[in-house]
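Figure-free illustration: sequence to structure, shown twice.
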Amino acid sequence: MVASDLGRAGRISTLLSRSRYEVIPLEGIEAQVLEHVPRDVTVTVTASPTRGLEPTLALTGSLARQGYSVVPHLSARLVADATEAAEIVERLRQDGVRDVFVVAGDAEEPRGSFHGAIDLLGALDELGRPFPEVGITGYPESHPFIDDETTVAAMAEKALHATYIVSQVCFDPSITARWIGDVWGRGIRLPIYVGVPGVVSRTKLLRVSSRIGIGDSLRFLRKNGSFASRFLRGGFSPDPLLDGLGPVLDGNEVAGFHVFTFNDVEDTERWRRARLHRPVSAVSGSTTAS
């Protein structure tokens, strides 16, 4: 293994120590987090277009009171107006929340006056920017519902109100790396948390991937023989996505990994610990998906 590979393996370990675990506020997930996720791992909590923000806020508050750094996903289309936004802010601040992830959300119709993430970001600004950290979404591939030109313009606008970006899952790490370079090349110098799936079953990952609009990546999996054959045999491992990011990890653009656990937190944390404690020289045997 050459020196650059050794350094990159160490860099991946550093970034893994800054991982964020995304969980869905469903029955049983709080117990799973408490049992398997250490307190130094930030937990982010998704929002459901059908169940509203209450499950997100409730789980956020409960985990925060038990010592976790928790980041609620605030879906703009689920917030009725500026008054409700202020109430949510106050509730989260009482729970000690210092970081929020603002998204438009998947609700077909907004509850009120907020139609997109920029509307809620503006409301937070009017409330005095109450959270030190504010995240927004980035799309290495095309957004399933919005054209690329619009997403680029929207990111530039949202970035004025944010402190970091979380990328959507992409199964081709070369696309993700190129996108990160493009984002910073456009002058949007926000740190990026690279979105990767955790250790999940093939069936679940394929089902969720199709729903959230990363079909180009699925086509990549089918065309990339060695990587796809391992993927299609059983459960998914994030290792090829991490290793395949290459030189982009050498700079300051990547702040860490945002791990989509799909609530399989036990297997994901077992993988993360094994990767953190793997001798750096052992990474030379990793296969990248590039």
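We now fold a second protein in the same way, so the two outputs can be compared directly.
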Amino acid sequence: MTINREAEATIGLTTRDPRDGSVIAEYALEDDARVTERVRTARKAAAWWAEIGFDGRKRTLLAWKSAIARGADDLAAIISRETGKPAGDALLEVMLTLGHLDWAAKNAHSVLKPRRVKAGIINYNQKATLRYEPYGVVGVIGPWNYPLYTPMGSISYALSAGNAIVFKPSELTPGTARWIEARWNEVSEHPVLQVATGDRVTGAALVASDIDKVAFTGSTASAKRVMAACAERLTPLVAECGGKDAMIVAADANLDSAADFIVFGGLGNAGQTCVGVERVYVVRSVRDALVEKVVERARRLRLDGDDPSYGPLTLAPQSEVIADHIADALARGGHAVLGGPESVDGRHVAPVVLVDVPEDSDAVQKETFGPTVVINAVVNLDEAIERANGTEFGLGAAVFTKSAKTGEAVAARLRAGVVTINSVLGFAAIPALPFGGVKGSGFGRIHGADGLREFSVPKSIARQTGKAALNLLTMERSGRDMHLVAKMIPMLHGRSR
């Protein structure tokens, strides 16, 4: 057992392996004073980090990436032990994370470098420039289901944009955060990245501190509380919240491929994926065939042994939510074609496939976050789109069809931040694509150029280079100049083309 003795007087956080309950490590519950000190230290480091420029930051970030890559197996083992997910899933998480870190470090300069902007014919005597400046110190509050990939979606892009970071990981997965912090300290003596361990009290202290922006990942209810706290100081917030992601399956879809992805997106990581698959709307003519294929694949999943298909629930109380949703679906007239209430055995939940579940049930409207999937038949794609859009969430969605035209048309009508066609989670490995939700799934974007700009403050600069033809910026405008203004308005803006 590894014990972290930092701030020993305030140790109060014990992590345990979800698979067997064994103690992993102990960490400090950092209080307001400790968080305040971290932010103060980060602000000093941020000044240096901004000063070294894009090239200096790129060199340090790529060195950090290399240090993480060299220890990928060790990091994956920590992720696996803290979350309970299979080691292979954890290693895939490391790989995807490094791809985003690499892209952010290498593209920050081209996206955020100062650029000239056309001032327009009327402003011929002005030179306009747009700059992007870092916020300063960004507080990142991360989740436990993907304790590396998800928070690093904010950390990588915020660092590349020139910000310092204070990262508060989930109380279930602080070891993952501490490991990447240690690799940072190997490549830089400056505390540009710091980890504050603790629980919700620590997170609240970070939000209330003198930080310049918050990046939060968690439930919609928690995001509302964070947003209210941010409002006290007008601290800007980017929030990635929950989802109830839907997949639409057209009559012409490749049903084998759709079934594979339903099982992967709905049951992988024990269903603990914000942007996976919780609902499926399939055209009625192929419904029975799809259900049969999904059930056949789900039955093959292994839940025990040395190489399980997925692990136990990371958060034990989530089993109660899953059980309640299954019970509600069945009580309202839905049917379980695989599993049922008996599938929930504490942290260990076997696959559950539900059909014909009413749209007002909790299993359709609320985030289940477990290895369950609802498959409902629809008359056509119009009905499927209406139902897919019929929850408070709007994080991700998917559509399966052999027609590229139909796929694009359906994607355009889905109210979601990301849509995949003939796959799920395809966007996760494409660093150039921004990620985020709409409606109750949050706002703001991480990843891609938009992710770099999310952690930057635009600054507009206009420089007058000569005398204007019309002297309008004065309290003593001439009648001649105003007469010309009256003539110019219809000339410049009176035509509709």
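Summary for the second example: The first strand starts at residue 11 and ends at 16.
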